[in-house]
Design a protein that fits this description.
Blueprint (H helix, E strand, L loop, with lengths): L2 H39 L8 H7 L46 H5 L31 E2 L10 E2 L14 H12 L5 H12 L5 H27 L3 E12 L6 E10 L5 E6 L4 H7 L6 E4 L5 H7 L5 E4 L2 H10 L5 H23 L4 H29 L7 H11 L1 H4 L1 H4 L8 H17 L5 H20 L3 H11 L13 H14 L1
Parallel strand pairs: 3-6, 6-7
Antiparallel strand pairs: 1-2, 3-4, 4-5
Helix pairs in contact: 2-10, 4-6, 4-17, 6-16, 7-8, 9-10, 9-12, 10-11, 11-12
């Protein structure tokens, strides 16, 4: 081989190597583009039934260091009993009755005797109305004691002296913005066009601030209760806020802290750093924080000197393998099948309304072998290097292995959930809202929104109307002391109403 031939051969080899790298990068980029297209335009559901999993696993189950035991057979479900049909219209609705008699009867009623009637019911609606709530305080003088000073009844305690908004209107503005997701500028338009009232959005914003200040003690009571259990789930979502001065928006974060089975509270911060968690979780907190794989959480836990145990979320792990199912159907299908078995166990425990002790025992007996099987498979695939690190399957395996210690925490604690879905569900109402109002206002408005979101979400979890609660609480708060605030938290308010119903 001449020198020229050797040079050309070397150039050809380098070109082929560069082409292989380019093809590999192109394949990875195509996977990422396909994933983004599915996330934006595809179905948001990640459910897979057994038939779909079997299609993914047409090939042989991937080899692992030990033989895989058969998946536990699903117990036959009991026959479904049809629940009684709910009434078409609720019985507690007010009734406006109109009686219509035939024309011959109207002309000569004395000649007719009623033998029956036909009743037709329709559901109707009357728009909400504004009203003036006028408080008249009369002034009196004594009839016989002419020198005594006149007497006038004192003004009852109120949210704001000489304030225009009554508690019912404040409750309506809060529920419209934070529950029905109507921005203040839309409320301003509705009040002007439908009711002829001039209520500028600046006035509405001041009313929101007034109400949030009064609700702050209740918010602190909820926050204390959530953090008192030693186990919380935490997640965060980005929210735009208005930067002062130049009219541009910046990105802040609404942190969500949930105690499963209890309440939830929100916390606003302009940052996503680990220092935010130090402000959210008090220094004396000891227990478990369940979260995703964001790097701020390990940093936060390290600063607490072992007082915080981090637990991870199996739903996030499943999501990675679900997104990689088209790249590697056989292996992703196997992982999805194992995770499905874990969730079947949790579903059976929920159906039995199992307590922490039973959940811990069942998980040790049934869930732990499945988790260990998944761990052996992760070690196997990481060792053989079958998947590129930046491929969807490679990233799914890497993320699962990075969270592996935290994924096993739920096996040792029966209080814990298998995933972080409860706190993610609590974020959804805020995600709907920010699509409508686009940004939350200035940075100070963020915490006011967090306070109101907390109150409304706690009402929603207990199934009662947040407007009814807010109207009553905003009426009672000016007459209450700080020690009485715990009597009007959503939890205490719901218990009081249940006692009244039982007594009736």
């Amino acid at each position: 081989m001449t020198a020229r031939e050797a040079e050309l051969t070397q150039q050809l080899a380098e070109s082929q190597q560069a082409l292989a790298v380019a093809l590999r990068e192109n394949q990875l980029l195509r996977q990422k583009v396909d994933l983004l297209v599915r996330r934006v335009f595809g179905s948001s559901s990640e459910k897979l039934d057994s038939a779909q999993l079997q299609l993914l696993q047409l090939a042989e189950v991937p080899a692992v260091p030990e033989p895989l035991p058969a998946a536990p057979a699903k117990a036959p479900s009991p026959p479904r009993t049809r629940s009684p049909k709910a009434p078409r219209l609720p019985d507690n609705l007010p009734v406006v009755e109109e009686v219509i008699d035939p024309d011959p009867v109207k002309a000569q009623p004395e000649n007719w005797r009623q033998i029956g009637q036909e009743v037709t019911e329709q559901l109707d609606y009357e728009p909400g109305r504004f009203l003036k709530r006028r408080t008249v305080r009369r002034t009196y003088v004594h009839r016989t004691e002419q020198d005594s000073a006149p007497v006038t009844a004192p003004l009852p305690p109120c949210l704001q002296e000489r304030g225009l908004a009554a508690p019912g209107l404040l409750a309506h503005v809060l529920v419209s913005k934070y529950c029905d997701h109507l921005p203040l500028y839309r409320q301003e338009q509705i009040y002007a066009q439908r009711h002829g009232l001039n209520l500028p959005r600046q006035t509405l914003a001041r009313w929101v601030e007034l109400a949030a200040d009064w609700l702050t003690p209740i918010y602190e009571q909820i926050r204390t209760g959530v953090l008192a259990g030693g186990y919380v789930q935490i997640d965060e979502t980005p929210v735009q806020y208005l930067e002062p001065g130049n009219g541009k928006t910046k990105q802040g974060y609404l942190w969500t802290v949930c105690r499963p089975g209890k309440d939830v509270f929100y916390w606003w911060n302009t940052s996503r750093a680990a220092a935010c968690l130090d402000a959210i979780v008090p220094a004396d907190f000891k227990g478990t924080v369940q979260c995703d794989g964001y790097a701020a959480y390990p940093c936060f836990a390290e600063g607490r000197n072992g007082a915080i145990t981090l637990a991870s979320c199996w739903a996030h792990i499943r999501r990675g393998f679900y997104e990689a199912r088209e790249e590697s159907p056989r292996i992703s299908g196997w992982f999805l099948r194992q995770i499905q078995n874990l969730y079947r166990i949790e579903s059976a425990l929920r159906d039995k309304k199992a307590g922490p002790a039973l959940r811990e025992a069942v998980r040790a007996h049934q869930s732990r072998p499945i988790v260990e099987r998944i761990g052996r498979a992760l070690v196997r695939f990481r060792t053989i290097g079958r998947f590129l690190p930046k491929s969807l399957m490679g990233e799914a395996i890497k993320y699962a292995w990075g969270q592996w210690a935290a994924l096993q925490v739920y096996l040792r604690d029966g209080r814990m959930e298998i995933d972080n879905n409860l706190v993610e569900n609590a974020i959804r109402p805020t995600a709907i809202g920010k699509k409508n109002w686009l940004f939350i206002g200035d940075a100070d408005a963020g915490q006011r929104g967090a306070i109101v979101y907390t109150i409304i979400e706690c009402c929603r979890r207990r199934g009662f109307d947040p407007y009814t609660y807010l109207r009553e609480v905003l009426t009672r708060l000016p007459r209450m002391t700080n020690h009485q605030v715990q009597e009007v938290t959503p939890e205490a308010w719901a218990k009081a109403r249940q006692q009244v119903r039982r007594a009736a």
